[in-house]
Specification:
This protein is mainly alpha-helical and about 160 residues long. It has 8 helices and 2 strands; from the N terminus they run H-H-H-H-H-H-E-E-H-H. A two-stranded antiparallel sheet has the order 1-2. Strand 1 and strand 2 form a beta hairpin. Helix 1 crosses helix 4 and helix 6 crosses helix 7.
Length: about 160
């Protein structure tokens, strides 16, 4: 189901109950924040390990899923009230993020962090992430060069 279909179902549910008069942008935004708070209660004071364990319990998993669904439903209703196409908005935002965080640049930075920081030792020379990126000519898929770790081992 896409956001348009979700919105249509939520609107039908709302209109059958004559709740539309309560669904102003302000009230929907507040309800969205309240539901997000209810979702966060499931994570408060727990470690990541405890959370992963908790969702193995079907009842807890269902409770978390219900809160997530509430968040998405209120978001869809808010988008409808504001005339925002969420499917299009998400697609545009993903494209913006792809430009803002180019895969090769981010991949080199993450590998550098895994290797101990922003400076990488290649042979006897010290290279910054940007120098290594230029050295490797990273302009296309990182799969073609086998990763920075492989490059360092072979050079």
């Amino acid at each position: 189901m896409n956001f348009r279909e979700l919105s249509e179902r939520a609107l039908k549910f709302r209109e059958e109950r004559r709740w539309g008069k309560y669904h102003t942008p302000k009230n929907l935004a507040i309800s969205l924040a309240v539901e997000l708070g209810e979702l966060l209660e499931h994570f408060q004071w727990k470690t990541n390990g405890e959370i992963v364990e908790a969702v193995k319990d079907p009842g807890k998993r269902e409770a978390i899923a219900d809160e997530m669904a509430d968040v998405v439903i209120y978001l869809a209703l808010l988008a409808h009230e504001l005339g925002i196409d969420l499917d299009g908005a998400v697609e545009r935002k993903l494209r913006k993020n792809e430009k803002k965080y180019p895969v090769n640049t981010v991949l080199v930075e993450e590998i550098a962090k895994e290797l101990g920081g922003g400076i990488i030792y290649v042979g006897k020379e010290v290279k910054s992430v940007s120098q290594v990126e230029r050295l490797l000519g990273l302009t296309s898929s990182p799969l073609r060069w086998g990763g920075l770790r492989g490059f360092i081992k072979t050079h």
